[in-house]
Amino acid sequence: MTKLPKAHKFFDVSDYGRPAARFIANSLQKTSFTPIHLTLIFSIVGLLAVACIFLEFFWAVLLLLILKSVLDAADGELARVKKTPSYTGRYLDSIADILLNLIIIMAIGIITDQHIGIALFGFFCIQLQGTLYNYYYVILRNNMGGDRTSRIFEESIPVALKGEKQKNVDILFKIYKILYGGFDKLIFYLDPRASSQKSFPNWFMTLVSVYGLGFQLLIIGVMLVAGWKDYIIPFFIAYSLLIFIFIGIRKLML
């Protein structure tokens, strides 16, 4: 199953790593490498980027964050080419992403002497932005015959797919709900009727993709290299204003 049928694919500014991700997945298709191995590797790459933030090796941070984005896409691509979708991989990927985001933002807060409350609010804003993008994207994927391992409403523990253990799915789902449940509920509160919309125009999804994790990480890396480290957290707080613009466009025009 493809992530999204060809007729509904849009230009995703956050998905710049997809060509390299497909190459990696195709290269590993006939090996014993699993998508979970790639998830663990991108987690290590993310932690290396954090270490480089503290060392102020900002070019290394940029390159590592780009590599992390590529590998983040590659685990899903590998699951598709091997035809081994799993909820274990889906939830583990999301858990790794949110924990890395928290650590990255807190590291930036530390090296810029930002108050911990401001840093945590910056993390909250980044996650809320990403949740809006994922909300619309998952609605589109579910309604248009794309990959369904991500559900619009993660309310109940899914039945394990072939090749994975139900116990692992149960544990990871509960962790996912603790970490993401509040963000999901808030975005649904802001735009509940979006879930009943069948699809979204490609131009709209391209606009919202500026909230994709890959693009967020690219912004962080570029701002560090440019010497704007003090402005990263304030930028993402202000960047959240687009949430209301995107929701307004969806309600008024679509």
> Please, how many domains?
1
Work out the oligomeric state of the chains in this entry: single chain
Largest sheet: none
Query: How large is the share of residues in beta strands?
Result: under 5%
Query: How does the helix and strand content classify structurally?
Result: mainly alpha
Query: Any guess at the CATH architecture?
Result: Up-down Bundle
> Total number of β-strand segments?
0
What's the SSE pattern? HHHHHHHHHH
The named CATH superfamily: CDP-alcohol phosphotransferase transmembrane (TM) domain
Return the CATH topology.
Four Helix Bundle (Hemerythrin (Met), subunit A)
Mean pLDDT score: 94
SSE diagram, text form:
Elements: H1 18-28, H2 35-55, H3 58-81, H4 87-111, H5 116-143, H6 166-190, H7 202-208, H8 213-225, H9 232-239, H10 241-253
Short account of what is shown:
This protein has ten helices and no strands.
Please provide a written account of the structure:
The protein has 254 residues and is an all-alpha fold. The chain is built from ten helices and no strands. It has a single domain, classed as CDP-alcohol phosphotransferase transmembrane (TM) domain (Four Helix Bundle (Hemerythrin (Met), subunit A)). The two termini are 28 Å apart. The model has no long low-confidence stretch (mean pLDDT 94).
